[in-house]
Structures are given as C-alpha cells and as structure tokens.
Amino acid sequence: MSDLTIRPLRGLPELREGDDLAQMIRERAELVGGDVVVVAQKAISKIEGRIVRLDESAKMDVILGEAKRVVRRRGSLVIAETRHGFICASAGVDASNAPEPGTLVLLPVDPDASASRLRERLGELTGREVGVIVTDSFGRAWRQGTTDVAIGAAGIQVLRDLKGQHDPNGYELKSTVIAIADEIAGAAQLVMGKLDRTPVAVVRGLDVAGDGSARDLVMPAERNLFS
Amino acid sequence: MSDLTIRPLRGLPELREGDDLAQMIRERAELVGGDVVVVAQKAISKIEGRIVRLDESAKMDVILGEAKRVVRRRGSLVIAETRHGFICASAGVDASNAPEPGTLVLLPVDPDASASRLRERLGELTGREVGVIVTDSFGRAWRQGTTDVAIGAAGIQVLRDLKGQHDPNGYELKSTVIAIADEIAGAAQLVMGKLDRTPVAVVRGLDVAGDGSARDLVMPAERNLFS
After folding, report:
1. Is the pTM of this model over 0.90?
2. Which of residues 137-166 of A touch B (CB under 8 A)?
3. Are B20 and B61 in a shared domain?
4. ipTM attached to this prediction
C-alpha cells in the first residue's frame, strides 16, 4: 500500500442549480486514474436544486416529509430513516451551508446516481477513470460527534470483505468487512471545511476501483438490532 | 488546510510483550511536530501483554469477562459495553492477528494511558511533539462493515466543536461537533493492513494538537437513545 494523499479543492464558487461541477473540478485539479473524488452532499444538492425556502419554524415539516420513518425523537432532535434507508438526524435536512438564510438543503434524491453522473462527466472531460463518493455527516448511536460517511458512490468498492483470508499467522478471518467508502468519506472530511466553502477533496493512492453502491452500506432491516 | 498524507509504517516485526514500540517507530519513520501516529489496538495489546491463551470454544467466557454489560446477543454475535464504555462486538476480544493460534487479544486496560505512554516515549526519542491515536475496528448500528475508531488518544483534539461559528453565508452552526479522532482512525485504517502486519501509520498535515481523551467520544448514558 502506497502513501495516501488527500487534497482539498480550493476556490470553488457558491454552487447553483445546473452548475457543471465536473468542469469546475477539472479546472482546479489534475486528476489521475484511480483518484477518488469526494463531494459533500450539499454541493450535489445545490447543483441538483434540492433546496427549499422556508423559515426555521417549518423545518420539522420538511424533515417529516423527507422521512420514511421516525426512529427516535427527543425535543428538537429527530432521528429518522430517509427514503434511501439512511438513519440520521433530521432525515438529512440541514440549514447550515444552505445557499442563503431561510433555505434548507435536502439530500439528493438518488445519491448513487448523482455520483455516477459526476463520474461520467469527469471521465468525458479528463479521460480518467476515477471513483466518486458523495458524503454527509452522520451521528452514531453510541459515539459523540459526527463522522462523514458515503451516501452515494460510483466506480469504487464500498465494502472490503476479508472473510476467508488469512492473517500473518494463518488465522482465517471470519467476519471482517471494512466499510472503506465510509472511511474515505471521513478521511476527506478532515480537509473539507464546513466554514470555508471546500466541499470537494481528491483522495489519491488507494486501490479501490469497483462498482459498489452506497445502498450496500445500509444495514439490512433483518440485521438491524437497534431500531 | 494543507494536503493530508497518510503513510503506513513498514517492516515492523511481530510484537511481543515489553517491546519498545516507540523505538521501532522512530527507526522506521522521520516524525515531525504535529504528526499523528495511529496504532492499531492489537499492537498495543501485544506489547502490554493483553493476550490470553484459550481455545475458541472458551472465547465466549473471555468476552463476558471483558464486558460490563451485554447490549444485544444473537447467535455467536455479542454486542457488549466494555469497561471503558465502548459498545462493540465481542467486547473487543478477537482472535485475528493474535500472536499465535489458540490465543485471543483483549483491549488495552486504559487505551488513553497507552497512547500517552507512547507519545511521551516518542517525544523522548525524537524531540517531537506528536499526537497518538489507538484504534480498533467497530461495527455501527445501522451501517454495514466496520470503520476504525479511536479508543485511545493523547496530544490531540478528539472532537471539533463548531457550535457558534458561522458558515460562509453567516448562518450560525448550532450543533456541529465532528469526531475528528474517529475520522483520523478510519483514514489510517485505509493504509493499515489486517493481513500484512502494518499496525502503524503516520498522518501528516492536520492541525489537531490538543488534550482530548477517547472517553470523550463515548456517548454519555443519558444521551444514549439506543441501548
């Protein structure tokens, strides 16, 4: 395994519906084959027009509209399952980094498809085969703080299954599956500012080409022991 | 924010109780101030002698001995709270990457203290102020696969609290706390092999010096909505 480098993409303008994000990325980064381009969900939602104009008081209605199921509720905290199957706070609805005061950003309708479109357009513009991950910041049941995870993916493995492989002493791994797309998402978050308009990073040095879907990261209902 | 680089440490021997891991790291990496040295829990447990010799059939007794509380149990899967407060599979007990067949590796007794000792010894040997994170691979309630998280920390912030700061449009962030130590742990996992004896990585380019404890990453009981 070679060194991994993670580079934030600087100088992006505020994004608007219809923007050609791939073109903007191409102008600011020299991509090579195998790079993984990580994009914060808000950037995708903005170019896809997933913005609603509403005052904060109506935010709960928007959240409930985005939710397939409310998992827990305490005060203003709503943990909900989205239509995609993700379990997260506010069904992914957020007012921070919205285009302007009084607007809320919703999750993309189909983040895997968003990732695929961006990957294809980057391929057209650069001739490079890259992976794309769309990320969001999710809380965890038993740990404080959020980590970024993959809600959309294209051109990469999302899970690395080591079952049946052997450690250096010959022990056969029985249940080791690593959520590498989530680890890549979290790694990219470390350089992607929430305060300074840096919603894209390029991860170089991984060997993760594949055809996974971020839906594969969702625990199937029959294995969900906690909600 | 500058580029982030993550470099696996190559050529470590199989570790034994009492080994001077800091010396081994120093011989294989040129550390600079501000680096974060990430070490897999198994490496720490081995040098601290947290190994038991038992056949697999007795593994459940060892798990229950390490658990403060069993959270869920289904077949051979036990999700337990450890004495440290971590909620994870098998209370952190694992047979993979154990020193030899017939042995199990337990979590360090006090992983923050392990991180502090390693950090101090690295400081003595190199004259550099670095951060140290001890990691383990934990599952998540609603997502498939494990991600590495921080179970011990020294010399770094573990949570980055953006509450009260403003996004580029002036919106005040209300509840944004990022579990950066967990994101660093996951990032390092991407270069740390479970199959090829690479339990240490060096993360460079972050500005995360601080004095957090990995205990701060544990959701306090009064905010735990799920177990």
Report:
1. yes
2. 137, 140-149, 159-160, 162, 165-166
3. no
4. 0.96
